[in-house]
Amino acid sequence: MKIIDWYILKRFLVTFLFTLLILIPIAIAIDISEKIDNFLEHANLSTYQIIEEYYKNFIIYYANTFMPLALFIAVILFTSKLSNNTEIIAITNAKVSFTRFLYPYFIGATLITIVSLAMNHFVVPSSSKERKKFEREYINSARQKNELKRVTDFSLQLSDSTYIYIRSFNTETKSGYDFSSEVYDGIKLKSKLVSSRIKYNDKDSTFTLSSWKMRKLYKQKDSISSGSKLDTVFSFTAKDLIYKSALSQEMPSGELNEFIGISKKRGVKNLNAYLVEFHKRTSLPIASYILTIIAVALGFRKRRGGTGVNLAIGLGIMFIYVFLMKISEVLGGVAGVNSLVYVWMPNFVFGGLAIYLYLNARK
């Protein structure tokens, strides 16, 4: 690397960190104003606990979320300043092409992308788990807490021939009602077990069924048996049901990928909400390259109005990108669609814009 590369890279990273350090306190101030009443409701909740269990993880989450935005703003600000100071004119007069000029920017974008990927796949999920636990205990309303604890209309394929269904299951008490288990031979029903209540026993990993009834189907006749209580085992545990209600943001990527694979084998119909989260952890950091090209192309030429015009155009483009990203996440979570295509759609669209601006800037 030449001296000019080190100069651009250093100023680029310093501006990026400065922008990030401005955005995070703003987010914290807004969040405190919204949640101060929730904090004051709990007399036993100390300031240290709020900072350690909530705002430490809040900063990790939003620092990672703001990285692409901070990168985009930093590149526009820094490049526009180079242009206004006629430093870019000196660089181009030295026969440095636009492609060569991008070299230190791409090094900086690569460093940020690597950090963002590591945080998205490993750090942020664990941090989000601790933050959401705090929210459930001290911030969420009683209604929200009940919704998070309850799984409704849950079905699961245990094997090629066995299926279960539970009307409602409480992940805290590990009990539910309206349970049924069906065993098939091809498409022919062999047996069906139903019970009004079901409870999981941690001690011996068994299930207790209350008011149960078993029906077995034979060629000539059916066999029906019933009872008030039955202890039995199934090839699933309460943990499988808890995962169903857990937020995908709380699972590290390895655990999330394993959960998706197991759920596919068990015949869970719509996993797109989990797939969207999994794909987004890679697509958003990769967008750093696309946003860098767009930002450099906008700030490369000196404009009437200076940095303010470039920044206004850049913020408009960033708003459109975030808006399109949110729409693609919602559409990608719909059953029956290709979530990968929808999650990467904003990158495809803005990648085309980046190529156009790049080719135009080269001229």
Descriptive labels:
363 residues; alpha+beta; 2 domains; 6-stranded antiparallel β-sheet; 6 strands; 64% helix
Layout of strands and helices, then pairs:
Layout: H1 3-40, H2 47-84, H3 87-93, H4 98-101, H5 103-139, H6 142-149, E1 150-157, E2 162-170, E3 175-185, E4 188-201, E5 206-217, E6 222-232, H7 238-245, H8 253-265, H9 272-300, H10 307-332, H11 339-362
Antiparallel strand pairs: 1-2, 2-3, 3-4, 4-5, 5-6
Low-confidence stretches: none
Number of domains: 2
Q: What is the terminal-to-terminal distance? A: 25 Å
- How much of the sequence is in beta strands? 15-25%
Report the average pLDDT across residues.
87
Query: Percentage of helical residues?
Result: 55-70%
Radius of gyration over all CA atoms, rounded: 27 Å
Shape: elongated
Structural commentary:
By secondary structure, this protein is of the alpha+beta class. It folds into two domains: 3-141 and 272-362, no CATH class; 159-235, no CATH class. Helices cover 64% and strands 18% of the residues. The chain has helices at 3-40, 47-84, 87-93, 98-101, 103-139, 142-149, 238-245, 253-265, 272-300, 307-332, 339-362, and strands at 150-157, 162-170, 175-185, 188-201, 206-217, 222-232. The protein has a six-stranded antiparallel beta sheet with strand order 1-2-3-4-5-6. A hairpin with a 4-residue loop joins strand 1 and strand 2. The longest helix has 38 residues, at 3-40. The chain is elongated. The relative contact order is 0.11.
